[in-house]
Amino acid sequence: MNEYQELQFIDYKERCYIDVCQDLPLQGSKVKILLRPFNRFAADFVRKVYQSEERKRKIVFYSLREECDVLLPDDVLPLPNNLEVDVILMFSTDCEILTSMLMDYLEDTKVYIVAPITENYFKRKPLFLISIPKSGTHLLYELVQSFGYKAGVVCPEEPLPGFWYCVEYSNSHTAARDFFIERVRRSPFGMRDHPFMRSPALFIYRNPLDILVSEANYYHKDGKTPFAGYLSKYPFKERLLKLIDDPWLLGSIRDRIGKFIAWLDFPNVIPVSFEELIGRNGGGDIGAQTKLIWSLQLKLNIPGKPGEFGGKIFSKESATFNEGQIGMHMRHFTTSAYNKFYSLPQDFMESLGFSSKDKDENIKISHRADEFRLRPYVYSKVNFDNTPITVVSNYLDYNIVKYKGFYYGVSHRLGPRDLSKLKAEDLDMFYCEQDIDSVKQRILLSTSIFKRTRRFIRRFLKNLQAGRILKKINDSKFLITS
User: Where would you tag: which of 194, 254, 301, 464 has the fewest CB atoms within 10 A of its CB?
Assistant: First the structure.
């Protein structure tokens, strides 16, 4: 029955599972359905399905012995070794259990899975995007848009589920050190409550040799980068050499790539290579693209067929698009460029899975691609909602404190206050809103200078109106007397 991969998510309701069975083609041989795990919900579902004699003749249910939480009825058979089923129905709403079961099918090329919607469902979590410059950033944008994520871009204090964001500002090219070292130094609470730690992130990387060619084709163009003038006087070959190792401004390609290497080691970050994602139109392999997208669907709980997503993500309309091809360096690198590149320490190439041992070959996909694809992602489960966190200090003699999903304006005149030790009714003494800007607005409206300014404007407008009325009266008197 299965000629492709498909993942479907439904509400954890008996009716929804029964509807899935009703939609199955029941002509020909029996439809084989695997139930994972076999629990009380699954047992009740089987009884309801088998109330129909037609379905009982056309559907056979299987279960794994080690996953039976209740006694296996005669109507449900233990799954024989090497039997290929047509449908896999999953019955766990525990996020960790469900994720583990989904990951069992990373290598399956013909499988139809139906699973319940949980907190890991892609529309219930934000997604963060990170990219090395010139590594296929817009390709990544096209992918998540095809998945159904909406563009949030700049991350607010409380990001919306189902939206994608940059981890810092509106630029997805955030170096790991900038985020975890520099930003932590200037952020309240050491940035421990940042939503990134509790969310999935996609990080796109690319063979640095091809990144260099893309840089050399783009960075010198007026208006494309602030340092275009620095490179514009050089022809392509000299530009390429300068980008490999520039001691005065840009540093070496190792320096630029090295700023992003640490992202590979964070458990909630899913590395994605340009070479896997680009597909046939960019000189890639459709099989590698499909395997990558399928793995992302399983990890992020995204419904659909990977083949359909793959056909939507290659776009030449990007403002930064040049060639979008794998192995561009083999057409553009000179012997001098290769010699200069390989004179650099190659640790950054090894970290990305592009070994210097392969320098005479067109290695299309990173040696680490399968490692990253098969690696489960893990995010922090620590929640700081019950910890009062001062997010803005001394705003018009107020501190703005985040606590239990709200923002409180706490006046300095009240002295130090620990909101976690106050009763719920005591919190009413503070300005309380669901976002920082609304609290700031209420604080501003309460200040004496604002009140005095408002009274002055009202008096001014009142006097101005009175002056206009008096002028009209005088004009009328003049017309009458004349």
Answer: 464
Strands 87-90 and 76-78: unpaired
Asked if residue 321 has pLDDT above 50, the reply is no
For 122, residues 6+ apart whose C-beta sits below 8 A from its C-beta are 147, 148, 149, 162, 300, 301, 302
Q: What is the sign, positive or negative, of the torsion defined by CA atoms of 295, 300, 305, 310?
A: negative
Determine how many CB atoms are found less than 10 A away from the CB of residue 205: 29
The residues with which 296 forms a beta bridge, in sequence order, are: none
* pTM of this structure: 0.87
Q: What is the mean pLDDT of the chain?
A: 89
233 or 451, which is more confident: 233
Q: Which domains, from first to last, does the chain contain? A: 5-116 (3.40.50), 122-374 (3.40.50.300), 389-446 (no CATH)
Q: What confidence category does residue 96 fall into, taking pLDDT thresholds of 50, 70 and 90?
A: very high
d(CA 370, CA 150): 28
Q: Alpha helices of 60-189 — where are they, by DSSP H?
A: 95-103, 137-147, 176-177, 183-186
CA distance 261 to 358: 20
CA distance 259 to 254: 9
Query: DSSP string covering 226-280, please?
Result: TTHHHHTTS-HHHHHHHHHEETTTTEEHHHHHHHHHGGGG-TTEEEEEHHHHS-G
CA angle 49, 55, 60 (to 5 degrees): 85
Amino acid (1-letter code) at residue 354: F
Q: Do residues 283 and 151 lie in contact, with contact meaning Cβ atoms separated by under 8 Å? A: no
Q: Give the separation between CA 378 and CA 4, rounded to whole angstroms.
A: 28
Distance CA 261, CA 309 (A): 28
State the DSSP string of 359-395.
TTS---S-TTHHHHHHSPP-------TTS-EEEE--S
| Tokens standing for residue 54 | 């037609």
pLDDT at 119 over 90: yes
Report angle CA 414, 416, 422 to the nearest 5 degrees: 85
Amino acid found at 149: Y
360 pLDDT band, cuts 50/70/90, is low
- Please check whether residue 142 is in contact with residue 315, taking contact to mean a CB–CB distance below 8 angstroms: yes
Whether the Cβ atoms of residue 197 and residue 177 lie closer than 8 Å to each other = no
The CA-atom distances, in angstroms, between 73 and each of 76, 77, 87, 302, 403 are 6, 8, 19, 33, 50
Hey, how many other C-beta atoms are within 10 angstroms of the C-beta on 26? 15
Q: Tell me how far apart the alpha carbons of residues 303 and 30 are, in angstroms, rounded to a whole number.
A: 25
* pLDDT band at residue 316 using 50, 70 and 90 as cut-offs: low
